[in-house]
Amino acid sequence: MTGPVVVGLDGSPESVTAAWWAAREAVNRRLPLLLLHSWTTQPLDVPIAQEAHHKRLYGQEVLQRTSAALLHRYADLPLTTELVSAPAAQALLDRAENAELLVLGSRGHGSVASFLLGSISLHVLGLAPCPAVAVRADDPAVEAGWKQPAAAERDEIVVGVGRPEGRAADALLEFAFTTAAAHGCRVRAVTALPLSASLLAQPGEDEVEDMAGARLAETLAPWREKFPDVPVDQHIALGPATQVLLTASARACLTVVGRKRQSSHLTWKLGPVAHAALHHVPCPVAVVPSG
């Protein structure tokens, strides 16, 4: 057993959905679950007095109510709760140092916002030292997963492999294959070729795609060997990387994208592909630090 699955919880619908997703993920990965609530960072619409005492009471009630519901469904899940006074973003990043996975809630299509305000949520996703997953409150597959496995039409872990070589690809593929093995899913590895690379339907177009496919196959080979029971599909397509990934995620129960590791907690950056996935892919999205 390694680090826990850490989820930010404030009692809002999106954070509760994230907690259910995180609990199932912890069970499948055989990891403990930590529910974290910052009583100084609560939803703006919480109908309670603003005194510190009432904020702490609200946080305790949220943690107790949610942990009881999760343990009713997953009786053997090692679960702990933590009520902290530190700002939510800092508390999550601190716990992420020793976590296997960090989980945030999202309010649905068009925004990435958990119990943190939107820009702070993106800040956490851009700085977390471990993989971080944004889970949409309106994802029907997540809700179905509380009581039964995900629907058959959502049976793929889609991973965007921008440059199919090197350590950056390895970090993404390790996470994707490990998750697929835990869930009994297939992996769809996606590489986009810019239109210029195909010479716009010139005679060399097929050769360009074949070369990209060969490079991707070479990158996938050690992971196929390490996870022989995980089915794998290669997806090579012409077009902008964002559009190719969104199209390929039609059957995804999880989409995995990467971002560069940051040398300082003062700056963070999510690339255009990660931004597009977080805003438009209907399933949970994992952002994996790499490189």
TrEMBL record:
Coiled coil: none annotated. InterPro entries: Rossmann-like_a/b/a_fold, Universal_stress_UspA, UspA. Residues 1-136, 156-289 form the UspA domain. It comes from the Bacteria. Transmembrane segments: none annotated. PANTHER family: ADENINE NUCLEOTIDE ALPHA HYDROLASES-LIKE SUPERFAMILY PROTEIN. Belongs to the universal stress protein A family. This is UspA domain-containing protein. It comes from Streptomyces davaonensis (strain DSM 101723 / JCM 4913 / KCC S-0913 / 768). The lineage of its organism: Bacteria, Bacillati, Actinomycetota, Actinomycetes, Kitasatosporales.
